[in-house]
């Protein structure tokens, strides 16, 4: 079945293929090497417009963002929340969110809030919701809400506008 010559041929084929791959890698690194010295980049792309634009950023107030928020877009963003929250007055994994804007934190009767959320206090103002929706675990350390947050401010204000529109 297997004799010494068959094993030798199989090993030679395997090692030969490995050697060919190593030589090809060495040749590719030599041909396509883009080296700099130390920490210097091999090449630089100058972008004057980006440097000029970074100094001229204008900030928009939260009130202006809320005034231009789109509740229809917020309804689409709410689909990320719909896995755990409802807006029809029924609790799910999370408490219902209809009427959340202006409501006291951890105030839905019968819902089992985490200790961190119960100890947070305050009201769900649009500003508080914006901070919480950015990263819930940073706004209320120890919350049992595992959502990572909404990075885009536009998505957050649209969602808050939608939640205001479904308030009772």
From TrEMBL:
Q: Which Pfam families match?
A: Cytochrom_C
Superkingdom of the organism of origin: Bacteria
Q: In the UniProt record, which is one GO cellular component term?
A: plasma membrane
Would the keyword Iron be found if you checked this record's keyword annotation?
A: yes
Chief localisation class? membrane
Could you tell me the membrane topology recorded for this protein?
Answer: Single-pass membrane protein
Molecular function GO terms recorded: electron transfer activity; heme binding; metal ion binding
Keyword Ligase tagged? no
Residue ranges of the Cytochrome c domain? Answer: 69-167
Q: Indicate where this protein resides in the cell.
A: Cell membrane
Which Gene3D superfamilies does the UniProt record give? Cytochrome c-like domain
Q: Which key words tag this protein in UniProt? A: Cell membrane, Electron transport, Heme, Iron, Membrane, Metal-binding, Transmembrane, Transmembrane helix, Transport
Q: Which PANTHER family match?
A: CYTOCHROME C (PTHR11961)
Q: What is this protein called?
A: Cytochrome c family protein
Which species is this record about? Answer: Ruegeria pomeroyi
């Amino acid at each position: 079945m297997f004799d010494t010559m068959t094993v030798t041929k199989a090993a030679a084929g395997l090692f030969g293929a490995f050697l060919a791959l190593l030589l090809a890698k060495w040749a590719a690194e030599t041909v396509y090497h883009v080296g700099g010295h130390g920490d210097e980049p091999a090449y630089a792309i100058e972008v004057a417009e980006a440097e000029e634009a970074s100094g001229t950023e204008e900030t928009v107030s939260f009130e202006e963002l809320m005034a231009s928020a789109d509740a229809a877009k917020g309804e689409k963003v709410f689909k990320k929340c719909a896995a755990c929250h409802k807006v029809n007055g029924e609790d799910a994994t999370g408490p219902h969110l209809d009427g959340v804007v202006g409501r006291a934190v951890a105030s839905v009767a019968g819902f089992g809030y985490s200790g961190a959320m119960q100890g947070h206090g305050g009201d769900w103002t649009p500003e508080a919701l914006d901070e919480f929706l950015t990263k819930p675990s940073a706004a209320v350390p120890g919350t049992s809400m595992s959502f990572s947050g909404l990075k885009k401010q536009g998505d957050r204000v649209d969602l808050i506008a939608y939640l205001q529109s479904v308030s009772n």
